[in-house]
Amino acid sequence: MSLEQVFASRTSQMKASEIRELLKLLEQPGILSFAGGIPDPNLFPAEAFSEAYARALSPENQAVALQYSVSEGYLPLRRWLVGQMERMGVPCDVDNILITSGSQQALDYLGKLFLNAGDTALVEGPTYMGALGAFRAYEPRFDRLSVNGNRPAQDYADAAQAAGGKVKFAYLTPDFANPTGKTMDLRGRESVLDLTEALDVASIEDAAYQALRYDGDSVPPILALEVARKGDLEACRTIYCGSFSKTLTPGLRVGWVVAAKPVIRQLVLTKQASDLHSPTINQIVVHEVAARMFESHVGTLRQSYGARRDAMLAALEKHMPEGVEWTRPEGGMFVWMTLPKNMDGASLLAEALRSEMVAFVPGSAFFADGAGANTLRLNFSSPTVEQIDEGMLRLGRVLRGALT
Amino acid sequence: MSLEQVFASRTSQMKASEIRELLKLLEQPGILSFAGGIPDPNLFPAEAFSEAYARALSPENQAVALQYSVSEGYLPLRRWLVGQMERMGVPCDVDNILITSGSQQALDYLGKLFLNAGDTALVEGPTYMGALGAFRAYEPRFDRLSVNGNRPAQDYADAAQAAGGKVKFAYLTPDFANPTGKTMDLRGRESVLDLTEALDVASIEDAAYQALRYDGDSVPPILALEVARKGDLEACRTIYCGSFSKTLTPGLRVGWVVAAKPVIRQLVLTKQASDLHSPTINQIVVHEVAARMFESHVGTLRQSYGARRDAMLAALEKHMPEGVEWTRPEGGMFVWMTLPKNMDGASLLAEALRSEMVAFVPGSAFFADGAGANTLRLNFSSPTVEQIDEGMLRLGRVLRGALT
Fold first, then answer.
1. CA-closest candidate to residue B207, choices B236, B176, B234
2. A67-292 CATH
3. With contacts defined as CB-CB under 8 Å, which chain B residues touch A115?
4. What residue spans define the domains of chain A?
């Protein structure tokens, strides 16, 4: 007996990621790891959550908190998000918002909403590994998005048609991207809008890290730029995916999607059919904690993560040999490193673990097209400032060794 | 601009359910509703949850409770479920279990795992509406499952092939089914195993209501029967979906799947790509509350819901006119009523709302093939015993009026 023979064809694209398997090993004690991508648990607003859960489960509230609720999401949380989006230049109402179980679920639903097998998803190279994973379940073709506007729309459309489908969307992480840490400038954002408009397709703006800016001026969300162009969210093709995972907590799995109402309506049906709704009580407590302290808590995070970003950039200056380059992110959780062309991130990891017990993520996993062998991702949100300096010292030694 | 033009073809099958839209109206004050399918919130073990959340968020536990966790699910909860499954005749280990966000998510994942567009899902008529919704996203064909074994396997296979696909699974709710309240006997269960074995496909056992038995002898799960046949879960084709939604609380969205390891491994990948993991803290508190009081709490539910079931059956005897038939469920939350052939449940509902302010769900929504116009579903877990008697009195009056 083997049920594998009756698995759907999509499962052939849904393989265990070698990188994810590897990451499990990297979190072992004794290893100084820059491989994770998770918030520092010491910075969770745990006391506020504890109070909020107690209140949600008080005799007058418990019947609601523990009961089924609507697929659209908890109304007071959606109302609070309306205010947040408005401050970002996106006037909307509650019917433009769906609560999801983290922004990962939004990516799954958007793949489900748009992709027939063989359709094309435009993605950056590198891009968020989890987005590639979510989309792959719908058997797409990936094409590399060139953000500077120097590849004509017709060229994307022709390539998609030749592959037997259509371009359906461009997926972007414009702010402090995972894995590069880079932020897309205003011109880049406008060029994405031009492209998706010329193709008449959606743009998916993954804003998971957007609140975590440590310096520099914030750039408006792509959705805000499109609202400014069109005057009305209902005329916009951009779908904004937000998350509380990097700001308040990832463990409660609360994110949201903002889009024109026909898109939200179809996503609500998708959610109804896939898990009915996100946990009621978690939405209630996230609303309470966000309403009470979102801005001040994000301020705390910015200070703490900003200091670690500074420490990492300083340590890289101090310890890295010539020929190695890295990004200088204005926010987020990652620095992206480019090694000399002939070097291989995966081999380097093996060596780094063996000789220095230091870990990172080889960069090729973030490319849909297998590029990026000579790249790697470093996380600075989990380690302390001291660990960062020690870790970069060790990584520098590994690199020096490999370069000689 | 209309993004609908680039929606995937599957969205044409994912329409808003008229019934679900209707149900929203039915929960208005003043209406005596038997339309819902939700637990009585007065029976939630809210105090135990409150204590468990407080403990999960204590200084020594909060870093884990609020952090990302593994896609497989919280290990102590999976261990506890190993014990539960063993008591039901299904020896397994933690790698045979995936935690899902309610059993609804398991149904979505199983659709994703098995169904290519055009493949056939065998479902009962009537069956759980949410299963039809979950599977429809993968563009299947539905065929009516005949449980008594009098339709040969080859006939199902031929029909599936003629429709351009393959039979991939049979989906069943063997215990106190939603909507019928019926329980499949041992012979029915064995015949399902014979059929899925002859077809060499999966059987999906949705056990959402299994713990809620009020009288009669329990029948072993289909998976237990298959383990007894084969001697080893790894040789089994049955996939068991459990849920805490009807026993502890639906608002936390915690369910589980038990199956052979290759199936669980692929479902873990599916979960990783779709929402990373179910909320960490909810899994922790469900484990604590289940370990502390699952059996005693289910005992309380059985008493309370059993009394309401008794009240509904007594009220139906008292108030229903001749020509109307109904099921006598041994558990669960529903009684299924069959009206004379020429009557229509939807028209009756309109009349019942107008003249008596009493509500139920017309039965046709539970059929994949549009049958069942003369059926309806009555819920007895939400209303009180007094409301049940009053409601059946009113419904009896409506039916008498419609029958004259």
1. B176
2. 3.40.640.10
3. 8
4. 3-45+296-403, 67-292
pLDDT for position A16? 77
The pLDDT value given to residue A403: 87
Query: Residues A318-356: pLDDT tens digits?
Result: 999 999 999 999 999 999 999 999 999 999 999 999 999
Least confident among A142-146, A147-151, A357-361: A147-151
Give contacts of B 206-265 with A, CB under 8 A.
Answer: 235-237, 245, 249-253, 260, 262-263, 265
Distance from CA of B130 to the nearest CA of A (A): 6
The yes-or-no verdict on residue A149 having pLDDT over 80 is: no
For position B147, what pLDDT does the model report? 83
CATH superfamily assigned to domain B3-45+295-403: Aspartate Aminotransferase, domain 1 (3.90.1150.10)
Instruction: Pull the structure tokens for residue B160.
Output: 């599936």
Write down the CATH number for the domain with range A3-45+296-403: 3.90.1150.10
The CA-atom distances, in angstroms, between A170 and each of A68, A197, A218, A261 are 35, 11, 22, 20
pLDDT-based confidence at A268, cuts 50/70/90?
very high
B46-293 maps to CATH 3.40.640.10 = yes
**B41 vs A contacts (CB less than 8 Å):** 62-64, 66-67
- The predicted pLDDT at position A17 comes to 72
ipTM at complex level: 0.96
Q: Any CB–CB contact under 8 A between A69 and chain B?
A: yes
Write down the pLDDT at residue B259.
98
Q: Which of B116, B253, B273 sits opposite A133 (nearest CB)?
A: B273
